């Protein structure tokens, strides 16, 4: 395995005649970012070092970045000088732009011949409305590329020492959203099945409705003493983690108001945290992650 990796690097050097490094990303084999294209790119959970090479390449080659509230603004320093930055999230208490407006804007920019980097937190297809945005682009005949990102519900948990699967705790995991488009607990999921189908539930946007969701899960058979762990600002210097149990989750959130964004994990995946909590205060000082 190790030999194979070494060979790949060597062949890259043979191909380009230069040492490997960031500066090479503009050259082959990285894909050309053509005018009039939209790249829908996941930025990862926050730590800049968790962006992909394709994300960095897109930052270096775009004309405009349309970014969301969940994108760590520190990452934008890698965007090439001269590119425009457009914010498409909630700001100053104003409601977030409606999804249709964002899609219309992406289409408009692409029609103007721009190379559009649509930058989203985590992974664009994980509760990130990347599906809707790419559908709009496809219908409008705009060429696009999807660049997956590290989702907070996997990579963010890793920064808190929580393995999303572990052979001793869970052979399955459920990814759930804590609210639907109206902000309420989602109605069109099978709560009965969710409560019992997998030992670990990873919930995005789960803090606001956590009390109601915990009650629903317990009524459907989830044990009241199951651990509930909230990881706030995962992978960021201000990451914090709080834990309670299912029967006390509603009260806990009311009293302690965990900072958001937060990922909520229900189940024993968090039992490993005590041993695996590697992201120490000293490491948090590193600006890359
Ligand atoms: N596409 C994103 C999720 C967008 S939904 C992804 O793949 O991660 C927004 C929710 O993601 C937040 O409410 C929160 O639950 C979670 N989230 C995103 N970034 C986070 C972070 N750095 N720390 C904790 N939770 C985060």
Report on this model:
The protein is of the alpha/beta class. The chain is globular. The longest helix has 15 residues, at 2-16. The chain is 30% helix and 17% strand. It has ten helices and ten strands. The strands form two sheets. The protein has a five-stranded parallel sheet, sandwiched between helices. The protein has helices at 2-16, 53-61, 99-111, 130-139, 152-158, 191-197, 210-219, 249-256, 273-276, 281-284, and strands spanning 38-42, 64-67, 84-87, 116-120, 144-147, 173-177, 200-204, 227-232, 240-245, 262-266. The chain has two domains: 35-150, Cobalt-precorrin-4 Transmethylase, domain 1 (3-Layer(aba) Sandwich), CATH 3.40.1010; 153-281, Tetrapyrrole methylase, C-terminal domain (Methyltransferase, Cobalt-precorrin-4 Transmethylase, Domain 2, 2-Layer Sandwich). Bound molecules: S-adenosyl-L-homocysteine. Residues 45-46, 70, 120-123, 126-128, 151-153, 156, 204-205, 231-236, 261-263 line the site of S-adenosyl-L-homocysteine.
* Number of strand elements: 10
Proportion of strand residues:
15-25%
List all distinct small molecules, including ions and cofactors, that are bound in this structure. Answer: S-adenosyl-L-homocysteine
Reported for the largest beta sheet, the result is:
5 strands, parallel
What is the radius of gyration?
21 Å
């Amino acid at each position: 395995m190790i030999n194979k990796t070494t060979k790949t690097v060597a062949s890259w050097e043979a191909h380009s005649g230069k040492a490997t490094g960031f500066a090479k990303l503009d050259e082959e084999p990285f894909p050309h970012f053509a005018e009039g294209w939209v790249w829908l790119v996941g930025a990862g959970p926050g730590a800049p070092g968790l962006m992909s090479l394709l994300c960095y390449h897109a930052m270096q080659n775009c004309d405009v970045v349309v970014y969301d509230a969940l994108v760590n603004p520190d990452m934008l320093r890698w965007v090439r000088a001269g590119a425009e930055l457009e914010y498409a999230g909630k700001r100053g208490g104003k409601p977030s732009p409606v999804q249709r407006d964002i899609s219309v804007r992406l289409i408009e920019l692409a029609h103007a011949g721009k190379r559009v980097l649509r930058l989203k937190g985590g992974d664009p297809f994980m509760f990130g409305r990347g599906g809707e945005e790419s559908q709009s682009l496809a219908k409008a005949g705009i060429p696009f590329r999807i660049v997956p990102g590290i989702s907070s519900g996997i990579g963010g948990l890793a920064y808190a020492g929580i393995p999303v699967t572990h052979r001793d705790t869970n052979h399955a995991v459920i990814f759930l959203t804590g609210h639907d488009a109206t902000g309420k607990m989602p109605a069109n999921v099978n709560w009965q099945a969710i409560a019992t189908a997998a030992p670990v539930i990873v919930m995005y946007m789960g803090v606001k409705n956590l009390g109601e969701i915990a009650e629903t899960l317990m009524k459907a058979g989830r044990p009241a003493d199951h651990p509930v762990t909230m990881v706030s600002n995962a992978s960021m210097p201000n990451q914090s983690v709080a834990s309670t149990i299912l029967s006390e989750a509603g009260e806990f959130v009311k009293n302690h108001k965990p900072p958001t964004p937060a990922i909520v994990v229900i189940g024993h995946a968090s039992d490993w945290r005590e041993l695996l909590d590697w992201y120490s205060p000293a490491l948090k000082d590193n600006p890359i992650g």
